[in-house]
């Protein structure tokens, strides 16, 4: 009864802070099966609360991304909800920073079409290729046919760099900075 009451209050506090929360109180499943199911669904943070945790006044939060566990004090549902929200913000910040670092590491600037084609075929340097580009559907189709790379997007943050540049494929004045890549 104490566990159910605390979990209901914690869930209410989390929802009041804009966090989606779900209580998994299926007794016919072992904890490991529940953990796996929620990890598979992509839940970023799991909080386990049982009678011993309530008695001790502390439990653990488990991160899906790296399987780390952090202590969570159960003095009040409000304080526990604040700690969960802080950890979710930390997870978001970490995942975003990691994604940006991976994107930066896999984005290459090339000067010529030949250089991009060569690097695409090397398999070691696959990724995104930031190039000056004159928007032309026929040239885009030729690039796709020859390299299997397609135009992915025109990154907003790079468009100020296009002025005075020539298209890496046609040699005409570029209209955009573009990202090309292969789909796998």
Structural write-up:
The structure is a single chain. With 184 residues, the chain is an alpha+beta fold. Helix content is 43%, strand content 20%. It contains 6 helices and 7 strands; from the N terminus they run H-H-E-H-E-E-H-E-H-E-H-E-E. The protein has a 4-stranded mixed sheet with strand order 4-5-7-6. Helix 1 packs across helix 4. The longest helix has 29 residues. The model has no long low-confidence stretch (mean pLDDT 94).
List the helices and strands and how they pair.
Elements: H1 2-16, H2 31-40, E1 45-48, H3 51-56, E2 58-63, E3 69-73, H4 77-105, E4 107-109, H5 113-121, E5 128-133, H6 137-147, E6 149-153, E7 176-182
Parallel strand pairs: 4-5
Antiparallel strand pairs: 1-2, 2-3, 5-7, 6-7
Q: What is the residue-averaged pLDDT?
A: 94
Secondary structure tally: strands: 7
Q: Which overall shape is indicated by the principal axes computed on the Cα atoms? A: elongated
Span of the ends, CA to CA = 52 Å
Total number of helical segments? Answer: 6
From the helix content, strand content and strand pairing, which structural class follows? Answer: alpha+beta
Low-confidence stretches: none
Pick out its properties.
about 180 residues; alpha+beta; 4-stranded mixed sheet; 3-stranded antiparallel sheet; 6 helices; elongated
